[in-house]
Design brief:
Layout (H helix, E strand, L loop, with lengths): L11 H14 L3 H20 L3 E10 L6 H5 L5 E9 L2 E11 H12 L4 E7 L5
Antiparallel strand pairs: 1-3, 1-4, 2-3
This protein binds zinc ion (2 copies).
One zinc ion binds next to loops.
């Protein structure tokens, strides 16, 4: 496949971790970045193409966090919500089923919750 070169700027910390990972996985930097981008784009297709979607959103917070107000805004999608604690971390799992654009919006909102990071996992392949 034809390759295209382009320059990107990333934080030093992230670049160092990327280099570490290339050593551990015995991959060159370009192959690793290409694999990461490919996987990210496949996941993002769930946001880009409107369809009936089901997804798992994992929210990992470094302190106790309530997302019930956020979830109230998404009564049009089917949500299962699990809330658990391990040491000081507050872990929440949201299983969402409904319109993909709405799930994408929910994910975007959860991604902005303070001291939390959200991870999106599509629960189906075909769109
Ligand atoms: Zn989907
Ligand atoms: Zn909690």
């Amino acid at each position: 496949m034809a390759k295209r070169r382009f320059g990107v700027s990333i934080s030093r910390d992230l670049a160092d971790r990327l280099d570490e990972l290339t050593k551990i996985l015995d991959m060159d930097r370009s192959s690793l970045v290409e694999a990461a981008l490919r996987s990210m784009i496949v996941e993002h297709a769930h946001y880009l193409v409107s369809h009936e979607c089901s997804a798992l959103i994992v929210l990992i917070c470094s302190e106790e966090t309530s997302i019930s107000e956020v979830l109230m805004e998404f009564k049009d999608i089917n949500i299962t919500h699990l809330h658990d604690h391990k040491e000081a971390r507050c872990n929440q799992i949201i299983i969402a089923a409904g319109q993909s654009t709405r799930i994408a919006k929910l994910y975007a909102k959860l991604n902005k919750v303070r001291k939390c990071r959200a991870k999106y996992v599509a629960l189906h392949e075909e769109i």
